[in-house]
Every structure is written in C-alpha cells, then in structure tokens.
Amino acid sequence: MIEIGTPVFQSLIRYNDSQWYVIVTDKGKHFYFNKALKKSSWSIIELVRDYQVNKDEFVHGINFDEVALLMGKVNGLAVDDEKKAAEAEAKEENEVEQVEEEEEEEEEEEEEEEVDKLDLVKNLLKEEGYMNEKKEEPKGLSLGYSSSEEEEDDAKEESHSDQESINKGLDLSISDDEDINKEEPVSDEEDINKGLDLSVSDEEDGNSFFQLLDKYKDQISLSDPWFIVQDELITEFMKNPEYYSIDDNLKESLYEKWVRSQENPQSTTSGPKTSAKPTLIQSYYHFLQDFKNELKNLYFNDFKQNFKNEFKNFTQDKDESQSFYENHYRLFKLTINDHSNLEKSLKKQKKLPKDINFKKQRLTEFLNSNLSPKETSNLNLASSNDFDQWIHLCNQLHLPLKVIQDPLNFIVGDEKRLQCYLEVLNIPT
Where is the stretch described as Disordered (predicted)? Predict the structure, then answer.
C-alpha cells in the first residue's frame, strides 16, 4: 500500500470563488482539498466527474511554481542555505561598493594634487616674468552683457591665456603611435559580449522539452491531455531544469506536438499529414457515440456488461487500463447529459427557436472560441466517410488536441461535425 504521508503545505487554487487547495504531504504526494466542502480528491478527473469543475479554468488557477517549490521543500530543497547564499552575495556586493567608493576618493585626491601642482607652476612662471598679472577692467561699463556673462568670459580667457603661457617652450606633442592607439571607450557589456553568440534558440528549448517527455514516456498515456500529465508527473518534472526553460503557455502545444510525433514517428512538420489515424480518445468517443441514448442512465460497469461483445472488440488490441476507459466514459456521459438537460431547459422556457440545430450551434460556438481560419492550399480530404475526412482535417492542420479530443465534438454526428469544422476554419466544400 502506498504511504500517503501527513499534509504539511497547501497552495490556494484561484478557481472562481471556491476554496480548493493543492495539499502537499511530507512523502511528496499531493491531492486536492476543498475547505468549505471538507472533501478531497486525488485527480482532476475526479473533480470534473464529482464536482463538475471546469478543467481548463481549474488547471489555470493552479500556481505550479509555488507547488514545485513546496514539493522541493518536501524533497529536501535547502531553502535556508539559499537564504545564506543570498546574504553572502549581498555582503560581497557591499564590500565591492565600499572598495569602489575608496577608489573614487583616491582619484579625487589625485586630481586635487594635480591642481596644486598647476598653481605652483603658474606662480613660478609669474616670478620669472613669463606670465603677467591679469589687470582688472573698470567697473560700471555696460555693453549689453550681464556681469555673470562677463565673469564667465573673463574666466575662459584667463584659463586659455594661462594654459598658453604654461605650455610655452614645453614639448607637449603626442606621438603618432599614441594618437593612433587612442580608442573610444568600450562599455563593459560590449566588451563581454564581443564575439559571443548569446542568443537562445527556441528550437533548442523545444528539443530539450521533448527529451524530458521522452524520459518519462513510459509513464505517459498518449491519450491523456497535458493538464493530466502535468498533474500526475509534477514531482518528477520539477527535478529537471528543462521543465522550467519553457513558458507555461507553450508547454501544452509542445506536448501535443510530441504526442503526434509518438503516434506518427515517420511524419514531419514540413508537409501535411495524409494519414487518417485518430487518437485513442477520438476512437473511443466515436465508439461511444453509437450508444448515446443507452449510456445516459448506465454506470460504466453496467455498460460493459450490457455491451460486453462490442466493448471487448474495441479494447482487445489496445493496451490502456480500465481506468482510462472508465474516466473517459464518465466525461462523455457527463457531456451528453449536460447538453441534453440544457436543451430541455431552453425548450421548456421557449428560448430555443424550432429551426435551430442546437447541437451544431453549441459545437460551432465551442470551435469559434478555440480555432481560427487556416491556410488550406495543400489540404487533401479524400476519404470514404465523414469521420475519416475529419481526422484528415485534424492531422493535416495540426489542430490542438484539447479541441479535437473534447467530448463535445460527439454530441453531433460525423457529417455535422465535419461541416462545423469546415465552416469555422473557412474551408470551401
């Protein structure tokens, strides 16, 4: 039996106004707990099933950086050592600043000494008769200049005259070599970066993330969306720097690209995919689509018993666990029942026009909120049936898995589903 451990940390999930928390135990395990309901769940799938939470909004509300830090503390991350290191670094910076201040004071003292030497030379030249004392101009004469301007001009003239007198008879020429070697000052950043390529390749980051997924691919079900994979493997992912090198908004799209590469290892992104191979989730929902009326009132085990042969034929050549089929059965059933109840409610309130296909309308609204028109010059949908054409469309346009694997796609039949996608993507028929 797996030892769960004792709860030691909690992280608030910002989902609506609920009181859901991620609870971390001293054994490195985590679960979800609602303080208001006093209920806990081990997976997001259970939350969707039992409490009807919106999985995308719920996952978006999880602070994965905070959870990773809490997991790190549980697994021995030396936070105190990091604090000491930061204090030592701050102390070192203060010492450097003190040294720099002392150097600036020494430079100022040297400049003052140079000024004293200049005054000494001027006095000697005056005594020898090489310099004359500056005669004062009569005061009170106004030529249109203010007294401050006169004083400034006099100071400049005196400085220029003194300099000429001091330089008289002295060789202050600069050699050609010294003049040639004189260079413009170069900033520290330019000097450090000179000759170095400091650019970071997005492709390299993507490849490192793919390698991370390859590392744990034996623990990943290709049919699971990213939020489930991240939820189940967060304690493993946080041990690898590759996980933090990718922005959270890009991880899902990179994961979907990796899944496609695992399902079609010989395919490339340079051209459209021509295979009509659906994902396991798409195949399973398409299978359940034929039993929509029956499964509305059946639990999973009852469904398996009532349609034993059909279920066995579908699953016999597949390696997924029974929990996979049960979880997606519940999601599919929940989607079908929710739509049915909503349609009945709108009809009862007479808010649903009779000439409207409400199922198609709902799917179209869902697609409009998640997809945008695509370039389809090389699109090839040649196939024998509407379902295969839809799979061709999904694969060739690399549509997001979270969209094409949503059970809402299957509240309509194959023909209407294909029509919805073609209309939303603005693809001529």
Answer: 83-200
What CA–CA distance (Å, rounded) separates 286 from 139?
105
Q: Which of 2, 10, 52, 58 is nearest to 30 (CA)?
A: 10
Give yes or no for a contact between 21 and 12, defined as CB atoms under 8 angstroms apart: yes
Chain position carrying tokens 């005061």: 139
For residue 212, give both structure tokens: 């991370």
Q: What digits encode the pLDDT tens for the residues 47-61?
A: 888 888 888 888 888
**Domain segments of the chain: what residues?**
7-76, 203-262, 280-425
With contact defined as beta carbons under 8 Å apart, do 279 and 401 qualify? yes
- Quote the tokens at residue 337: 């029942």
Residue reference for tokens 């029974």: 322
The token duo for 10 is 């909690």
CA 297, 302, 308, 313 torsion-angle sign: positive
| The pLDDT of residue 361 is above 70 | yes
Please tell me the chain's helix, strand, coil percentages from 3-state DSSP, rounded to the nearest 5. Answer: 60, 5, 35
Is the backbone of residue 305 left (phi > 0), alpha (psi -120 to 50) or beta? Answer: alpha
**Residue 16, phi-psi category: left (phi > 0), alpha (psi -120 to 50), beta (remainder):** left
The pTM (predicted TM-score) of the whole model is 0.46
Helix axis angle for 44-51 and 226-237, nearest 10°, is 140
CA-nearest of 351, 346, 362, 342 to 412 is: 362
User: For the chain, what's the residue count?
Assistant: 429
* Closest C-alpha among 382, 421, 414 to residue 399: 421
Phi-psi region of 225 (alpha: psi -120 to 50; beta: other; left: phi over 0): beta
